[in-house]
Amino acid sequence: MRAGETEAKRKAKIRYMIKAGAVLSEIKKNGVTHIVGVPDNGSRALYQKLWADPDIRVVPVTREGEAFALASGLFLGGKKPMVLIQNTGFFDSGDAYRGTVLNMAIPLVMLIGYRGYETMSGTGSVDTAATFFEPILKGWEVPYFVMRSSSESRLISDAFSKSEDTSLPVAVIYPGEMN
Hints:
The chain has helices at residues 7-15, 20-29, 44-52, 64-76, 87-92, 94-102, 128-139, 155-166; strands spanning 34-37, 57-60, 81-86, 109-113, 144-146, 170-174. The longest helix is centred in the middle third of the chain and has 13 residues, at 64-76. The chain is 45% helix and 15% strand. A 6-stranded parallel sheet has the order 2-1-3-4-6-5, sandwiched between helices. By secondary structure, it is of the alpha/beta class. The protein has a single domain (7-174), classed as Thiamin diphosphate (ThDP)-binding fold, Pyr/PP domains (Rossmann fold, 3-Layer(aba) Sandwich). The radius of gyration is 16 Å and the shape is globular. It starts with 6 loop residues before the first helix and ends in a 5-residue tail after the last strand. β1, α3 (44-52) and β2 form a beta-alpha-beta unit. α2 crosses α3 (44-52) and α4 runs parallel beside α6.
């Protein structure tokens, strides 16, 4: 256990571990050609698998807002991109999100890490990134699915279906770290 980490927080992190292989399989099932985003601790294992996969091109960006512009361009060029970022980066990229994928009606699936989720179930300070996340998604009218386990990785396919049916971006949000 890390210094300062409570047993409850450690168990919450373990409870929400999602297997990166299950997520990658679902991504490939949907024909994704490019993953655009910013690696973080929660998505590290998935990025490692993506970098090793010859079928999917990873396009790292320096800021999350760039991910939406690049994903839009890839889509217009006939590719099938997916954005992979953390919730704090999503907050920061609001105008880029609005001005590209939303206004251009790009059917994009976003896989967004739910930083701070485990702090909401215990006592002590709560990471406001977590408390703001779902209200922001609702306020921006972003349809979303919550993937809490590997067995729910099928929600990625549900998000692709919804995105394609509506020609709008859809999010799949996940707590914890992938392994």
